[in-house]
Amino acid sequence: MPESVQPVCAQRAPRAGLRARPFAWLEAALSVWAAGHFDVLFPTQEQVAVLSFGHDRLIDAGVTTIVPEFDALAAVQDKVSAHRTLAGLDLPQPRASVVTDARELAAHGDLPAFVKLPIGTATSGVQLVRTRSEAAAVASVLAAGGVFDGGAVLVQQPVSGPLVMVQSVFDHGELVAFHACERLAEGTNGGASHKQGVSLPATRHHLEALGASLGWHGGLSVDVIVGADGPLIIDVNPRLVEPANAAASGVDLVGTMMEIARGGQVRVAPEGRPGVRTHQLLLAVLGAAERGGRSNVLGELVSALRHTGGYRDSTEELSPLWHDALAAVPVAAATLATLARPAASAWFTSGSVSNYALTPGGWRKILEAASLRPEPDWPR
Q: Does residue 352 surpass a pLDDT of 80?
């Protein structure tokens, strides 16, 4: 990224929480833009949903950003819509069904299966049910929460194989940057604490078809399971997800998005070097605390300090101490907290997700506002 460019990242711009008040968040973001001297408003998380909805408003305010058209975003924003979109394009995904009734879910016979709420971040809203009694219990909870009051859940069959995280950037339907990395180890909330770049040409072709069909503009990510019959798409994110392994592998996803946002011409980037390893010690420490308590946390720290195990020939993504000493602060805080009380890991993870997660109610407000267009008054 050119040093002269001053981006305001959507995750940190406003103090108003996104969650259930997406329009208040957008108003706050516009205030930050107006008060500062920025070149690009860069979407980093689920704020892309309200930025996409309000793109015309952003243009009127002179905001430079990069987001897909709202109809394209709505086609993949929630898990049920994404499933239907992928099915319509005949793109590979696990066997799944859309369930609109609690009794149907309770009687679901193809188990085990993942029950997925349409909106959920960092594995929230995803439950694995193995038996009919578990399915009935989950169905009861979801019904009590009003999930089936005009809504639905996705019931998806498990697939055996490694998880691969795929990131891409599109310029008005053309794929211009692509990277895939395998999750070598799981951190907290199902996140990847250790990754390795891989070559996955089949999924590149699948993303090209998806992005071209939607006329996608901006970042688009998918999670795939590489099973016996090839890669199957299990989740779609209408944004860029964890681009550090790509950068270490030679693919500058963020810089490409910045250049497109500013109206530059970009060439299709070559794929990165496979085999490059990266890690996030903070996620690894929190995940170790969740799984095994203090002994696991200590073991993780010893491996990191000695550069053994998953840390051999691996580069830190979140806390590169060699040029940012302050990056050690959150890692040290998490380590001390989890050594004192392993259950403290939940405090770190719940707080971070809540800062950027869009709730079902927040997404419903955006959809309701979209159904009322054109309206002269901006929703509050």
A: no
